[in-house]
Amino acid sequence: MTLNTLEFSRMGDLAYQALRDAVLSGEMKPGVRLNQDELAKRLGVRRAPIRDALKRMEAEGIVKTLSRAGGVVVAEISEQEVADIYELRSILDSASTRLACERMSGGDLARLREIVEETERATKTKNLNGIVQAHADFHYLIYAACGNAELTRVARNLWDRSYRFRVMALSSEENARRGLSQHKAILEALGARNPQRAAALAEDHNRASIQHLRACVAELRESGSIASSPAA
């Protein structure tokens, strides 16, 4: 790898982080068209890192490419999309948690305990980035420990696509504490090697997320922060 390649990679990561933060903070509203030349000028980078950043964000469901008019816009938040993604996640998380309970090592369990402790520290200090990352680490470890490469691949892809929804959910202090409590219960079931209970708790965890996110989307729609229907 050359120094130029490293520099391009670094610029791409910085552009991705800046654009994603702008969307998640509400600075860039749903439906807003994203002009790559303008974004490149604004961030002081070339067009290529912007293009790559938008591709990564599209994979996460944060932006979308318009098929008819062309161009990229900030994706609308759809109640149906929330329900669809978390319904499928519920199935995959339940299966991966059950398999992980049977297959994960003592080292995996020890690391999972550390992640729960990290989540607790981030929750106490109201560090949203830390909370979101710790929640991701918790689920990623379970996916990796399930021992099924295809399940892990699909589950992680779906997890990445739900990034914006997770930030929305975990922005609520009450919901962040509830999620931490649910992770502790899942960890306890995994430690007890009780796959049925661990799987059921993982399913309940996702069901609670769906209910909270639907309420969030409805509230945003009523306030006019998002459109009543997704952009075509």
Order of helices and strands: HEHHEEHHHHHHH
Oligomeric description of these chains:
single chain
The count of β-strands is: 3
Structural class: mainly alpha
- The count of helical stretches stands at 10
CATH superfamily of the largest domain: GntR ligand-binding domain-like
> How many structural domains in the coordinates?
2
Strand portion: under 5%
The main sheet orders its strands as: 1-3-2
Low-pLDDT segments, ≥5 res? none
Report, as a whole number of angstroms, the end-to-end distance: 41 Å
Radius of gyration, in angstroms, nearest whole number: 19 Å
State the CATH architecture of the largest domain.
Answer: Up-down Bundle
Largest sheet: 3 strands, antiparallel
What is the CATH topology of the largest domain? Four Helix Bundle (Hemerythrin (Met), subunit A)
Shape: globular
Helix coverage percent:
over 70%
Mean pLDDT: 88
